[in-house]
Amino acid sequence: MLESLLSRVAAVFSRRVDLKRLVACGLEYTREFISALVDAFAQMFFFPRSLVATCNGHGIAGGAVMLCAVDVRYATKN
Known about the structure:
- With 78 residues, this protein is α/β, with parallel strands linked by helices.
- The chain has helices at residues 19-45, 61-69, and strands at residues 4-8, 12-13, 51-55, 58-59, 72-75.
């Protein structure tokens, strides 16, 4: 039984990080952001049930890490 499913309907599977905001908001914001991002990826990696992701395009940056953290990945070529 599939317990959880992550899906992104777009050309790119990504967390859509606003890099300009990271620079503009300074070091403290960036530290908090990275800490929260690491925590989110760890929660996915250690999720107690099967975690499935679908990707219909390229997986880049955080999206690629998310795809690596799940148990099963489904992808298309488009």
